[in-house]
Specification:
This protein is mainly alpha-helical. Among the domains are: about 45-120; about 145-209. It has helices at about 1-65, 70-85, 90-105, 105-120, 125-140, 145-150, 160-175, 175-190, 195-205. The chain starts with a helix and ends with a helix. GO terms for molecular function: protein-containing complex binding. Its main location: membrane. It is a single-pass type II membrane protein.
């Protein structure tokens, strides 16, 4: 009888717990489970999107190698930019397009591509490459102030020499020897001692003396 009363008391306690807090605990557990499921699905979706973007990039490379029309290449590039804007593949394809336009001396088109990369891709290396190339494109157009502004883009410390060297080139093109020398010197100071770029940088620095 005592055992039965004890079991009944435990059952009553559980019912009270469920009424007072159990349903909230269950809701929290369900929310956590759904959150984890959503995160897992998001990661899976992200991986799938990246694979799709990589496939489009591969198509662009194949078409460029086959010397397909610019209209065909641009159609795939637009697809990447509109549907996979935050993917590395979209940034890579746009950087390639910028290089093609630069070689063809269509600097304004190259400038647009590089600005798109800076606005849509935040990977540190991609940001640094886009800023450096944008500075060079603007230099070719003699947009010196805009070039310096692009090269002042905040990047990780490892990539600062890349932008500083380009900044020195912009100043050198304007015969601003003091500013050019300062930029080259700063780039040298930030480069590792065994970096192969040091020799060329030193030559540029010496040319400003």
């Amino acid at each position: 009888m005592a055992a039965h009363l004890e079991e009944q008391q435990e059952l009553d306690n559980f019912k009270y717990f469920w009424k007072s807090t159990g349903r909230w605990l269950f809701a929290l557990l369900m929310a956590a489970a759904l959150g984890y499921l959503g995160y897992t699905m998001y990661k899976s979706h992200k991986a799938s999107k990246n694979q799709e973007a990589a496939a489009v990039l591969a198509k662009i490379v194949d078409k460029m190698q086959a010397k397909a029309s610019q209209a065909e290449v641009n159609a795939d590039l637009t697809n990447l930019q509109q549907n996979y804007s935050d993917s590395i593949a979209a940034a890579q394809a746009t950087l390639m397009a910028a290089a093609t336009e630069y070689d063809a001396r269509r600097y304004d088109v190259a400038e647009g591509h590089l600005n798109w990369v800076l606005q849509n891709q935040k990977a540190p290396l991609i940001q640094a490459l886009a800023a450096q190339r944008l500075g060079i494109v603007l230099l070719q157009q003699k947009k010196y102030d805009a070039a310096i502004a692009a090269l002042n883009t905040k990047v990780e410390a490892d990539f600062e020499p890349l932008l500083l060297e380009a900044k020195g080139d912009v100043y050198a093109a304007q015969n601003k020897t003091k500013e050019a020398a300062q930029s080259y010197q700063q780039a040298l100071e930030k480069l590792p001692k065994d970096a192969i770029e040091r020799e060329l940088l030193q030559m540029k620095l010496d040319s400003q003396k």
